[in-house]
Fold this sequence. Notes:
Layout: H1 9-46, H2 53-68, H3 78-91, H4 95-114
Helix pairs in contact: 1-2
Amino acid sequence: MCFEKKRGVGFWIKRIIFIPIAIAAGFFVFGSLVMFLWNAILPEVLGAGIITFWQALGILLLSKILFGGFPGKNNRRPFHRHSHDIREKFHNLSPEEREKMKKEWFDRFENKANS
């Protein structure tokens, strides 16, 4: 397996150097993009003032807090887990049970659409 592969010191040195550079580049790219788009669009459309790079990073952080949150290890979106369970149960059904389930779901959504 790939997890059992031993990695040399050079691999870890490259990783220690590359990760901070990649993170800094990401902040720079996204901050610059927000600043450029804000300054190109909003002053003309809404009469908002122009912003600096650091204000753009602040807007990115604020939008992450307000709209994305900071999910921890135990606070992942549960929908993905449930959709995987449903998919697994569906694949374990016999062909007759699958057709019956499909018909019930289509009927259920058709009734809601007609209401």
